[in-house]
Specification:
Number of strands: 17
Radius of gyration: 22 Å
Mean pLDDT: 90
Strand order of the largest sheet: 12-15-14-13-16-17
Distance between the termini: 42 Å
Strand content: 25-35%
Helix content: 25-40%
Shape: globular
Largest sheet: 6 strands, antiparallel, barrel
Number of helices: 9
Order of helices and strands: EHEHEHHEEEHHEHHEEEEEEEEEEH
Structural class: alpha/beta
Length: 366
Amino acid sequence: MKVLAAMSGGVDSAVAAARLVAAGHDVTGVHLALSRNPRSHREGSRGCCSLEDSFDARRAADKLGIPFYVWDFSDRFAEEVIDPFIAEYQAGRTPNPCLRCNERIKFAALLERGLDLGYDAVATGHYARTEVDDGMTKLYRSVDPGKDQSYVLAVLNQDQLSHSLFPLGNSFKTDVRREAADLGLSVADKPDSNDICFIPDGDTPGWLSEKIGSAAGEIRDESGAVVGHHDGYHHFTIGQRRGLRLGVPAPDGKPRYVLDIEPVNNTVVVGGAEGLTVRHVEAIRPVWCSGESATTWHGQVQVRAHGDPVDATITTVAGGVMMDLEQALRGVAPGQAAVFYDGDLVVGSATICGTDRAGMTVEQAA
């Protein structure tokens, strides 16, 4: 098989490429240049996509004896990932750019170019598994629960999954690092990247302020009383507790959290922890990885990349999906992805638009 191996410069993608070579595939390594102004190096686990990362990817490819290229996708990344990220925050929602990058860049732009050039598949170092069942490629959780990345891959459709390879899905991270060391790869001990790649210092509010400016507004409690002020609602996400700087203590003396963000009137609403609890979630723009589900079925829902799944009754409706949770969740924000599982099988995903506490309904979003 002729495979295009996406090599980020980290240990996972390097070992994924090494396994494909060992399996006898015709492998070409490619590093995606996603920044218009890449930094020379990265600091520990902060970000990725620096010049240092591209050099690490090239060294790994040289060690494996495979061709290597750097493809400039920076303009498309800005249009498909960064600009929507800014727009979502301006709308008071909480986006996940990693899902967007997988959907629009790694398994759309990269895959499209790869197929056009005669490659059969794209491979990455994600920790997830695929299996073919009755002609359908199904996505499953990784065997390593601590590294499972099926959540961020749940935006992929059947065509994309059928041309995708995840060589690390049956491995544990400790074994991958050991394998890299045995192969003599210089990235064997390189730290994982844990931040948004285009915000390497981790200061998302500060970065957003540079892009969209700051506009002072009010922080109100659920009764409508002003309890503080802010320099821009994009500094906040639902469920946030720290950094509120409230001038008026809660009547019961308990901590307060962000319950809602209202862009129209530039207001942030705060209240007690009980106000974060939701049992009903609605989402739009569903993607069914394993074929569209039954109208109503019982499965599990996960709303964060490393969150715990909860049992739920999931109902497909016109324009979206409704989820009735058996266990209440806290801090669920519009813009997040809800991923649907049937055990380890990834059934699909959708973008949260509202909950039983706040937000628009599926009908309003449609």
